[in-house]
Amino acid sequence: MNQSTAVVAVRNVTKRFPGVVANADVSLDFNPGEVHVLLGENGAGKSTLIGMLAGMQQPDEGEILIGGQAVKIASPRHSLELGIGTVFQHVLLVPSLTVIENLMLGGSWWQRLARGAALKRFRELSGLLGVEIDPDAQVGRLSLGEQQQVEIMRALWRGEKVLILDEPTSMLTPQGVRDLGAVMKRLRDKGVALILITHKLVEAYAFGDRISVLRLGRVVGEIAPDRLKAMTEKQVTDTVIQMMFGTVEAHARDAEILTGRGRAAHRDRAVDRSGAARLQVRDVGTEAERGACPLRSVSFDLWPGEVLGIAGVDGNGQKHLAEVLAGQRHASGGKIEIGGIDVTADGVPERRKHGVRYVTDERLGEGTVGAFSVATNLVLKEIGVAPFWKRGISDWNLIHDHARTQIKRNDIRTPSEKIPVGRLSGGNIQKVLLARELNAEASVAVFNKPTYGLDLQNTRLAHDRILASAESGMAIVVISTDLDELLELSDRIAVMYQGHLAGIVENGPDVERKVGMLMTGAQKDAA
Amino acid sequence: MEGLLTQPFLTALLFGAVTAGVPLLLAGLGEQISEKAGVLNIGIEGMMLFGAYTGFVAAFYTGSFTLGFLAGGVGGAVVASIVMLLCIRFGLNQIVIGIAVTIGFEGLTALLHYFQFSRTYPRLDAAPVIALPGLSQIPVLGPGLFSHNAVVYLAVILVGVFTWMFRSTYVGLNLESAGNKPAALDAAGVSVIKTRALAVLSTGFLAGLGGAYMANVGAGLFVPMMTGGAGFIGIVLAMLARGKPLWVLLGAALFGASLSMTTALQVAGVNVPTDVVQMLPFAMVMLVLVIFARHSVLPPALGLPYVRGDRG
Fold this sequence. Notes:
The structure holds two protein chains of two kinds. By secondary structure, chain A is an alpha/beta fold. Chain A has 18 helices and 22 strands.
């Protein structure tokens, strides 16, 4: 480590939260003109480290050095003033304001809103990121992917010395990730110190100049730039896995997911399509909503035991598709049949009776009620219904018994079934959702971004659950912006583009190219 | 009943509507600022009442209406600073503190008034009136709408100022963010606590000014409990206005007119029991709530104290 060149450095930093040590004796240097990758699973302490650099939290021990001087970063404002810009994992935009208003946020009250200058900067950054967003669109109506793009713009807004990106690629398309990589390189060449947090080793290798690996709050290894440059991708992969897991073989599957390698083996499983389709969707459309892409005449069939992956750039109607299948959104036209029964006009309870299950991408809020206990959330869609409710009176013993069984069976990590679900980690909230939705009576399941924001282990568990459900004869729709995930799970992959199904292709060799072409909307005949 | 459509009756009706509506307008505008910033300011009734008292006392002893209004605003802001300290700084429950403030200052003003004036209710001279040149010459409308105290015109001008402020200044952006996604404001480097504190103090000042107008101009004297729910009507107006000052103005005009109607109908000697007539403004509140309440959109962070690091 070369202390004299570091623009930001942390020295022996320790941060404790009740019950956990989030960071233990962490020392790292962040140099200008360098992309410093922090690798580690959820809970490895990356977010806490970022939180301290961004001024959201203060270290309990140790110090943060800016340009060699020990600095106490007292607030987010202080962090910004020191030239540290951060893109957080959680969306930090005001949903009721427009894109440009969100970007202008942070000025002092006596200043006039400089809209013209802001628009100029907005166009610069749009060009730099290669994205097209309406600056006057209300942020709450943008898709998660677009919101994240706005967040990246906001972090770049003041041309910071240090840019922290907390898993920025999780929402982007392959093209978006490449664009982001180009932006990072340009910024790096301008002398910005970039801190990139990612799960994906491929990205660490592609974008990183220096790689540090965190595990359980500690730095367990670092690959310096000159060493990294001399290594092949294979060597880096092996080295990092060695650092993270100790041995290569013992955790071969973790390593596969981490690297995205070994998944090239496409899912190869014959689906019996001779019988009647379980789910038939015919020319289904939805009402247009300001800022959201509606469905336009979507049709497909889905057979029992089949997994249909829905790919596409975020914001091309995926959310509407999920909601219209779940019965949460009214179809403005077309027909949806389950096992030959027309359910187009049915709401959520009726569809649920027909075996429709929906695992939303908004785990907290739409999927669960954060303030309710784990037990209540496990029966959330059966409130007032026997056997858990008898003549309108809750049978808490039964509800809690049911919860304890589910917690054990699904390995939900919670101190008790009475804990509010909002206090659990994302992975455990997802387990609660899966436990509730995937029971014996399920016949059609819709997953929207099932592994968004989950760590390796929970991603693997969710994938296993989805595949096991398909094996048991469920018809499954998986919506995801992560193409690798769809390649692993799907029998067929459909691509959504501007509310249409641009095409459906069989999963197999060369599918990436076909899907990629469909995603751009250019090639309709690629399938 | 034939007396209803005479010129003096209509003039009195309009004049009364403005007089009754202005305190509601000031309270509503004030509450709107707090609600935008995510603070449900239930204590506004107490702020109005204390503003009415301090405003009256200042005007009574100095003889200056300007000082009276100023003292009213400051009085309201002083009460607001209690809310600011307990709810914003220490994150206590806004509804509980708001109710406590309202009840507390109902009692306190009555007590102070009793010590100061015993059981007498001294009156102020008539408040100075600015007749707008030209406009005030129009029959009925002129004396009804355009011959009022300066505070009336100030309140109406504030509607325009606030509309502009919410839409095209940093104050507007910051208030909106503090109520919708305080963490985003914090991350942008603006203190949520300070933004909300400023909002609550402004609410207090405007509510106090409204109270002082009520005492010094509307009634010309101070009576304990004289605000009679005006602060609560202000809360309703702010909630129904969806962050738009113009809607507060329209609502205040509607309620002002129905309050004025109560008095005017009694004066005109209409043969309806006074109890029924006095119900009118409150029936109006309920009617408006039934019609519009489901359209009211409140900021997601309304009523929630902000703690840095909490997700959301």
